[in-house]
Write a structure and sequence with these properties.
Length: about 160
């Protein structure tokens, strides 16, 4: 059966409201770190989404079924890193491979940008997300007690 969604770049006017709702409903409640109200304003979240690269899983009608937001970070004398900032899928769209497809496409983007690895943080207690990333090849490399998060890491082979 063909997927009933496509992965495409973020479109500000079309996608912002749905992505903001997903962040507030699906991601913010799982965070162990206190999130100030100002961090969840439309302006702050929209500015965050517009940094880096955001990909959207869109249904046939154009509705947002999920999204991933990543940033490429580089420092002098350090490898280029793909930082997975946020990934969320609508609850009624889970189990259809959307999260996996978004993650795969983000990793492809990272390889294209010469990233040697991908990393992300998973909040303590978010066992479903932790298992999802483990299945995708990520490994826990450290626990951050002050954040109550696990840092996960996956080597990427850059495109030559």
């Amino acid at each position: 059966m063909a997927a009933d969604y496509t992965i495409r770049p973020y479109r500000h006017r079309q996608d912002t409201a749905a992505i903001l709702e997903l962040i507030r409903r699906e991601l913010a409640p799982l965070s162990n770190a206190p999130i100030g109200r100002e961090a969840l304003t439309d302006r702050a979240l929209t500015a965050r989404i517009r940094q880096g690269r955001t990909l959207v899983a869109a249904g046939r009608s154009g509705s947002v079924k999920g999204f991933i937001h990543v940033m490429v970070t580089s420092r002098p004398n350090a490898p280029v890193l793909l930082q997975i900032d946020m990934l969320a899928v609508e609850p009624d769209s889970r189990g259809q491979g959307i999260g996996t497809a978004l993650l795969r496409e983000a990793e492809r983007y990272g390889r294209f940008r010469r990233c040697t690895a991908a990393s992300l943080f998973v909040d303590e207690g978010n066992d479903r997300a932790h298992l999802f990333y483990l299945r995708a090849g990520y490994r826990a490399i450290r626990y951050w007690p002050s954040l109550r998060c696990w840092e996960l890491y996956k080597p990427l082979i850059p495109v030559i």
